[in-house]
Amino acid sequence: MTHCAGYRAEAAAHRSDLRTLGIDAEPHAPLPDGVLEFIALPEESSHVARLARHSPEVHWDRLLFCAKEAVCKAWFPATHT
C-alpha cells in the first residue's frame, strides 16, 4: 500500500505467486535539498544528473527515491533487515 497527495495505490498477490512485493508513490517534484546525497551512491547521483540534463521534465532524483523505497518495502518483510 502506498499514498501521497492526490494518489493512493495498493498491490496484492498470492504468497504462492510472489515471495514479496513493494510499491511506492511520490509526488512528481524534486527531492528536498540534501535527500539525494543521503539516499544515493555517488555513481547513482551522477547518473541522475545525466538523466536530468537529457530529460529535465522528469524528476529523476524522486524517481530513484521511489524505486529504492519500493525495494525496501519488498525487502524488509522477506528478510526482517
UniProtKB/TrEMBL annotation:
GO terms for cellular component: enterobactin synthetase complex; plasma membrane. One of its GO terms (molecular function) is holo-[acyl-carrier-protein] synthase activity. It comes from the Bacteria. Mg(2+) binds at residues 24-26. Residues 21-79 form the 4'-phosphopantetheinyl transferase domain. One of its GO terms (biological process) is enterobactin biosynthetic process. InterPro entries: 4-PPantetheinyl_Trfase_dom, 4-PPantetheinyl_Trfase_dom_sf, Enbac_synth_compD-like. Its cofactor is Mg(2+). SUPFAM superfamilies: 4'-phosphopantetheinyl transferase. Keywords: Magnesium, Metal-binding, Transferase. CoA binds at residues 2-3, 24, 69, 73. This is 4'-phosphopantetheinyl transferase superfamily protein. It comes from Streptomyces sporangiiformans.
